[in-house]
Amino acid sequence: MAGAGHETEETPGEAAYRRIRADVLAGSLAPGRKLGLDGLRAIYGVAIGTLREALFRLASEGLVVAEGQRGFAVAPVSSEDFREVAELRLLLECYAVTESFAAGDLDWEGQVVAAHHKLAILERRLLAGEAADATQWKRYDREFHQALISACGSVTLLETYAAAYDRFLRYQMVAVVFRGAVAAEQHAALLACALARDAPRAQAILRDHVDGCVDHVVRGGALAPFARRSPGMASVTPEPNVALVRGR
Question: What range(s) does the HTH gntR-type domain occupy (predicted)?
Answer without folding.
Answer: 10-77
